[in-house]
UniProtKB/TrEMBL annotation:
The chain crosses the membrane at residues 12-29, 71-100, 112-131, 166-199, 211-230, 349-366, 372-391, 403-423. It comes from Lutimonas vermicola. InterPro entries: LipidA_mod_glycosyltrf_83. It is found in: Cell membrane. It is a multi-pass membrane protein. Its EC number is 2.4.-.-. The keyword Repeat does not apply. This is Glycosyltransferase family 39 protein. GO terms for molecular function: glycosyltransferase activity. It comes from the Bacteria. The keyword Membrane applies. Its main location: membrane.
């Protein structure tokens, strides 16, 4: 049997997927402004004004970082059709496959690199984000770029290449923070740990590289943090969305699982139901609306503080319920269930098989990773910690499956590397079976 020969050029190898994604986006995306899309487009328009003394919104809301809106600036500036943005998603996802493949080529055999990249190419969980104006696909692309640049940083021998990819890693990580501000907390956590380790072993070149990557990324966020400080008076303030996510995560009421629900949709029952959410417990909804009525007239920064305070009190008074919500949160990140007041939908089944494969392989990978930690390439170790800290932090707020998909490039690289170095599979089939019966 002949072995399958794949094209050597990854751009050619994975080009059919670009065509597939373009067709998919062209058919299923909607050239209208709906959901959170308006928020990102408004950010892009605001950035074009270059007058940051005025707040983004009259109510003081800073819903997310400027990373994704920066990418939207050309589309807003030239008033291009919205479908052009979703077509960009198709292109970015195609490039993310190539980046993952090129990263894997440096670490594993060609076949494993191809198969792992194909898994990401068929990762249907990301397709929903691909057809929308949302930062998930862009973030996945950035994570894939970070993966490639970090692997190159810690596998290159030439000093100039190390410096080049170290700078690219730092800039990419900084842009990831600006796109998904939760990564700001991840970077500060990793920076704190890296500084302690570096103080213990100052001669470690690997730790010095990690510190440089983290410091460059933080440096890239300084203009944004200066902006948030100017409008809020708070240091290291990333967004006004933390309080509402923590509030829903801490809900003490039975029948609620910590998933996010907008207060605006609660006020309009028809909207609440149109969004696929069904009100089964009016008393719970009334309790939430009372909270909203108390803070509705505050600006978003004050609302954020109030909701955080309420959430902390809920956690203190109902720790067991918070633990239950946390378990549900893990379920939503991994398998897209359960959601408060949502009927079960067949669409959820799409998330289960692929994520289930990743989860099982990750569980297998944990033991050899722990056992041979110091033998694993330092760059891979950094990426593993980066993804685990992010996923762990995401479980503390109201989370969804799209948050897991963001780190899938790193997780797949981790799995492929461990499988390459721990398992040997021989797929040979003996056509002649031994005779198990003796002739008498």
């Amino acid at each position: 049997m002949r072995s399958i020969k794949f094209p050597k050029n990854p751009y050619v190898l994975f080009f059919p997927f670009l065509i597939l994604y373009i067709i998919y986006v062209s058919v299923f995306s909607r050239d209208v402004n709906y959901g959170d899309q308006g928020m990102y487009l408004k950010w892009a328009e605001y950035l074009l004004t270059v007058d940051f003394k005025e707040p983004l919104n009259d109510n003081g809301s800073i819903p997310n970082g400027p990373g994704y809106p920066i990418i939207l600036i050309p589309f807003v500036l030239f008033k291009l059709p919205l479908i052009c943005i979703t077509l960009l998603n198709a292109l970015l996802y195609y490039f993310s496959i190539i980046l993952i493949f090129k990263s894997l080529q440096l670490l594993v055999q060609q076949r494993i690199a191809v198969l792992t990249s194909l898994f990401w190419a068929f990762y249907i969980n990301s397709f929903i984000s691909m057809r929308a104006i949302s930062p998930e696909v862009f973030t996945s692309f950035l994570v894939a770029l970070l993966t490639y640049s970090v692997v190159k940083t810690f596998t290159s021998i030439e000093v100039e290449k190390v410096k080049k990819y170290l700078i690219i890693s730092g800039i990419t990580l900084g842009f990831i923070i600006l796109t998904k501000v939760i990564f700001g907390y991840v970077v500060y956590f990793l920076l704190f740990g890296s500084v302690i380790l570096w103080l213990i072993n100052k001669k470690s070149a690997n730790l010095s590289r990690v510190l440089m990557i983290l410091l460059i990324s933080i440096g890239l966020t300084i203009p944004y943090l200066t902006y948030t400080y100017y409008h809020t008076g708070k240091i290291f303030y990333w967004a006004t969305s933390g309080g509402v996510n923590l509030y829903w995560m801490s809900t003490p009421y039975e029948g609620e699982y910590g998933s996010y629900i907008s207060f605006e949709s609660l006020k309009q029952k028809s909207t609440f139901e149109q969004n696929g959410i069904y009100v089964y417990n009016d008393s719970n909804i009334s309790n939430h609306l009372k909270v909203w009525e108390e803070i509705e007239n505050y600006n978003r920064i004050q609302q954020d503080d109030k909701l955080k305070s309420i959430a902390i009190n809920n956690i203190k008074k109902h720790p067991v319920k918070f633990l239950q919500n946390w378990i549900s949160n893990v379920g939503r990140i991994l398998l897209n269930n359960p959601y408060s007041y949502n009927l079960q939908k067949p669409r959820s089944l799409f998330f289960t098989p692929l994520n289930g494969i990743i989860i099982v392989l990750l569980l297998f990978s944990l033991v050899p990773t722990y056992k041979y930690w110091h033998k694993i390439n330092f760059g891979i170790r950094f990426l593993i910690l980066f993804s685990l800290v992010y996923l762990g932090g995401s479980t503390l707020g109201s989370a969804e499956s799209r948050m897991f998909a963001i780190t899938a490039p790193v997780l797949l690289l981790w799995i492929a590397f461990i499988l390459q170095n721990t398992i040997k599979i021989n797929l040979k089939f003996n056509t002649v079976l031994p005779n198990t019966h003796e002739n008498h």
